[in-house]
Design a protein that fits this description.
The complex is a heterodimer of chains A (207) and B (221). Chain A is 54% helix and 10% strand. Chain A is mostly helical and 207 residues long. Chain A folds into 2 domains: 1-38, no CATH class; 42-198, Up-down Bundle (Butyryl-CoA Dehydrogenase, subunit A, domain 3). Chain A has a 3-stranded antiparallel beta sheet with strand order 4-3-5. In chain A, strand 1 (8-10) and strand 2 (17-19) form a beta hairpin. Chain A is elongated. Chain B is mainly alpha-helical. Chain B has 2 domains: 4-50, no CATH class; 55-218, no CATH class. Chain B contains 8 helices and 7 strands. Chain B has helices at 7-10, 55-75, 92-101, 106-136, 141-154, 160-178, 184-202, 205-212; strands at 18-20, 27-29, 38-40, 47-50, 79-83, 86-90, 181-182. Chain B has a 3-stranded antiparallel beta sheet. A two-stranded antiparallel ribbon of chain B has the order 1-2. The chains are: A mainly alpha (207), B mainly alpha (221).
């Protein structure tokens, strides 16, 4: 049985249970005072909006250089992918894998995964709810790790700053990439995972 | 844990005897937990809550340790490199400054990095300290509740562990060209990260909410 069927609302902030008050549009949690909703309002529409914006920024993030390395007057621009390839050339395969996963695999997986979750909720897909629940939790947990490349750029820009001899500058690809990470994190927060379970017919969906 | 078979009686129970999973909205009878135990949702597997020993006292010790480490971790040099006789140092703070100095749109990344690596981790620690003190001294519980709500919104935006990974990747990238030497700031940063992770594991939200709402017996000072 779902809490919503029993007329009970769970506070999204402190997880306290509240009896639903049908006459009150502005019901507050009895413990922490946050607004309580049966489901996050407009969850699907807001998540779609954030996700589509992120998908749009995903293109410049991958095409434009994220940083430029100047050495003795010559500049070499690096995109996310060329940075990974360069690491492989220097025989640093384990680190190349970490960067590849954090900067390319994770953002792509998040975009596709969230779109899949939204689609499955709207279309009442018979995908296992438990699996989709795991997927949502994974997307929510892993999102922040995509900031890795941004932090690497921060450290490198601060360290390698020797004027005309050698210096590293951040590029606009980094701005686009940073916005993809932030937007997909916001999209994951806006999505209400309870929607996944709302359109499963039975409560006994254990596998 | 009771299943949904007896669902007709569930809605008649008092709210204190019930718990609902905040991930899938399954309504259940509330299980009683002993110290160190945790409850999971039988349907979707999410952790409902856990019960730790002496939460307030242990968390206070950790939050104070983390706050003491905060300044050295952010302002002492993490590493140095040497290129043809010129030396350069990197601190968390100098990273933000040099991104900001590039100007234009890049200022926006500087701002995000500043927030995720310095401002939010500090705010989180200060809020945790205020919440714990409000429980311990029994003052300003309503402010404590508000701060703890804000804390939960900020939680995933503090990214110390990702920053540490970024430092490690940079070291590997630099190792062939500039032979970086590690400095004391890195040690402080790792210590800060460990204290913060340990604190998040210790400070079980369920017990803090109950203590803030007045049920002191659950937090056991």
């Amino acid at each position: 049985m779902r809490a919503i069927d029993a007329g009970i609302l769970i506070c999204v902030e402190c997880h306290e249970l509240n009896r639903q008050d049908a006459d009150n549009d502005d019901q507050r949690c009895t413990r922490c005072g946050a607004k309580v909703h049966a489901r996050r309002p407009d969850s699907l529409r807001r998540t779609w909006a954030l996700l589509l914006t992120a998908a749009l920024m995903y293109i410049p993030a991958n095409v434009l250089p994220i940083m430029t390395v100047y050495s003795l007057g010559k500049g070499q621009a690096d995109t996310i992918m060329s940075g990974v390839i360069e690491l492989i050339h220097y025989d640093m395969v384990p680190i190349a894998i970490v960067v590849f996963v954090a900067s390319i695999l994770v953002p792509t997986f998040k975009l596709v995964g969230l779109a899949l979750l939204l689609y499955s909720v709207q279309r009442h897909q018979p995908l296992s709810a438990r699996q989709r629940g795991w997927m949502y939790r994974f997307i929510e947990w892993i999102g922040r790790w995509s900031m890795l490349d941004i932090f690497v750029i921060t450290v490198l820009v601060a360290l390698v700053n020797f004027g005309s001899l050698a210096r590293i500058e951040a590029g606009f690809g980094a701005v686009a990439f940073c916005s993809v990470v932030v937007l997909t994190m916001l999209a994951a927060v806006t999505f209400d995972p309870r929607l996944i379970w709302d359109n499963t017919e039975s409560d006994n969906d254990h596998d | 844990m009771s299943e949904s078979a007896d669902s007709t009686q569930l809605s008649a129970l008092a709210l204190e005897d019930l718990v609902a999973c905040h991930e899938c909205d399954l309504l259940m009878r509330k299980p009683a937990l002993a110290d160190g135990e945790r409850a999971e949702c039988p349907r979707c597997g999410f952790e409902l809550y856990s019960h730790n020993h002496q939460v307030v006292r242990r968390s206070l010790a950790l939050v104070i340790a983390a706050l003491l480490l905060y300044v050295p971790a952010n302002f002492l040099p993490i590493m140095q490199i040497n290129v043809l006789g010129q030396t350069a140092e990197d601190t968390v703070w100098s990273g933000v400054l040099s991104l900001y100095a590039a100007g234009g749109l890049l200022k926006s990344i500087a701002l995000v990095v500043f927030l995720c690596s310095m401002v939010i981790p500090l705010l989180k620690l200060l809020m945790q300290l205020a919440v714990l003190l409000s429980i311990r001294w029994n003052i300003g519980r309503s402010y404590g509740l508000l701060l703890y709500r804000i804390y939960h919104h900020l939680r995933e935006w503090g990214m110390l562990e990702v920053y540490l990974m970024g430092i490690l990747v940079s070291i590997v990238k630099l190792v062939d060209i500039a032979s970086p030497t590690l400095d004391v700031g890195l040690g402080c940063f790792i210590a800060l990260l460990l204290a913060q992770v340990w604190l998040e594991v210790t400070m079980s939200p369920h017990q803090i909410w109950e203590a803030l709402a007045g049920g002191d017996a659950h937090a056991r000072h």
